[in-house]
Amino acid sequence: MRELSNMHVGSRRSFTVEFTNEVFTIAPDLYVGLIHAPYVTNLDKDTAVHALLRHMEQEILNSEVRRDSISELPTIAAWRKVYSQFGIKPSRYPCAAESLIRRVIERGSLPRVNTLVNLCNAISLKVCTPIAACDISDVQELVIRSAEGNERFLPIGKVNEYEFPVPGEIIYVDKSERAHSRRWNWRQSDTIKVTSESSQVLFTIEAVHKEAKVLVEATTYLLNELLQPFSDAGSCKLAFIHREYPVHTFNSGGGVINHG
């Protein structure tokens, strides 16, 4: 492992994640796990991650889940209901986890991207709920709210070819009015995609079904443990978002600032 502490001197800063009340009105059972990793590397050998992803793909293929029954999985069914409630057709715009499962069933495997993305995809297949890795080096905060329609969204792989979200759809947005997701977790922006050079990363684990708390907490602790080979010792910090605790700030000293 490379010596990370010396590589990221000066990168420590506060970072806030806020889910607005309107989001909890749409998804009252929403529970979100956050892992703030200010010092990570994607450049180590990831044989174990590749093996884990292949194992989870095979688990999906060996299961009784078929393309027309993905929507019956409890976690996916809950996401479909939530998507419908903010005006999105889930059959056309499935949540990130449903898209992954569908691709495995249809094509047998997922594209290999990089260590951290592959790891998130593997765990997402395991628990059947969206998990994302976000490069936050150019972002100071993320607010999850309904779109007004004037926020700029840059699709992955595009250069200055911005889209604008439909008013009312749920998006991740920063204070510069840059949207970093479309239709909640259907698509991620090019600005926060994780690459092999990313070093400051926020991981999100989201669920909206009745048992979301149990699933999200267990998954967050599992992902945090699996991140240890790729992070500076003790640098990752965890938090959980829910209706009674909608805002969390990770402070620049590595601890947390709590919000009620």
UniProtKB/TrEMBL annotation:
Family annotation (InterPro entries): B3/B4_tRNA-bd, Phe-tRNA_synthase-like_B3/B4
One MF term in the entry's GO annotations: RNA binding
One Pfam match: B3_4
Domain of life, per lineage: Bacteria
B3/B4 tRNA-binding domain location: 77-228
Protein name: B3/B4 tRNA-binding domain-containing protein
Species name: Paenibacillus antarcticus
